[in-house]
Amino acid sequence: MVIPPATRLRQLIAEKGIVVAPGVFDGFSARIALDVGFDCIYMTGAGTCASKLGQPDLGFATLNDMREHAEMIANLDIRTPLIADADTGYGGPNMIARTVAQYHRSNVAGLHIEDQIQTKRCGHLGGKQVVPIEVFATRITAAVLERKRLGSDIVIIARTDALQTHDFDEAIRRLKAAIKAGADVAFLEGVTTEDEAREACRLLAPTPVLLNMVEHGATPSWTPEKAKELGFKIIIFPFAAIAPAYEGIRKGLQQIKDTGTTGISVDFTPKKLFTLVGLKEATEIDVAAGGNLYDGV
């Protein structure tokens, strides 16, 4: 029997090590992360906006955009839990409850809800604004109540951006309010120093704390080992797939423009691509049903 993804995520968090979740932005990048063998993956909101909508992470994505994308990724392999960005929850308490319900039904293992205003932006851009602490607490309360109503194990992660808009003390105050409201994990966005990171993990203990490892953003580049030493329990790498994809795609397209050839490696065949995204499984289903459509593929 396959363990439900949310239950599996809770098990990973309870173990001694740190949960490492590379950021994926579409089905192909998710398949690659699964093939590499990660125990958990993360659907980045910025990557979803960029790949699905071709837009910056400025609140363009709706609940339907994010849920649809998350459902596709989460169900590629339900043995590997997916943590997904849920932005601000997309409205008041009823909309937040709807968000949790839809993510739960989509097999998402965990989601994070933040305290930015509805017209939010990437956490590593300037000019952010946050809602009052009471509104943030209400958002988390609505999420927790819906989880309980559903009998779900989905992990509720409370994220604050108040470190940039206010100060460290206010950010911790907000996360403590979220924990009191029932959040399972705390997410302090935009940590800037080791001392800040250690103190946050100490003050929020025993609640697990998540580190958002955005390279070249507000936070220094730390490895999972360093993050664990600082006290974090989960580390996500939102740009892990989309940055190399940008570099590789641009290089290939530029080569076509300059030379008329792609320069693609000879071992990257159509069969290799299709094998990575489920050719073997599709063939097995066809054969088990008595078909032979894929003979000779």
UniProtKB/TrEMBL annotation:
Q: Which InterPro entries match?
A: ICL/PEPM (IPR039556), Isocitrate_lyase_ph_CS (IPR018523), Pyrv/PenolPyrv_kinase-like_dom (IPR015813), Pyrv_kinase-like_dom_sf (IPR040442)
To which protein family does this belong? Belongs to the isocitrate lyase/PEP mutase superfamily.
Q: What is the lineage of its organism?
A: Eukaryota, Fungi, Dikarya, Ascomycota, Pezizomycotina
* Gene Ontology MF terms in the entry: methylisocitrate lyase activity
What is this protein's name?
Methylisocitrate lyase
Write down the superkingdom of origin: Eukaryota
What reaction does this catalyse? Answer: (2S,3R)-3-hydroxybutane-1,2,3-tricarboxylate = pyruvate + succinate
- Output the PROSITE patterns linked to this UniProt entry: ISOCITRATE_LYASE
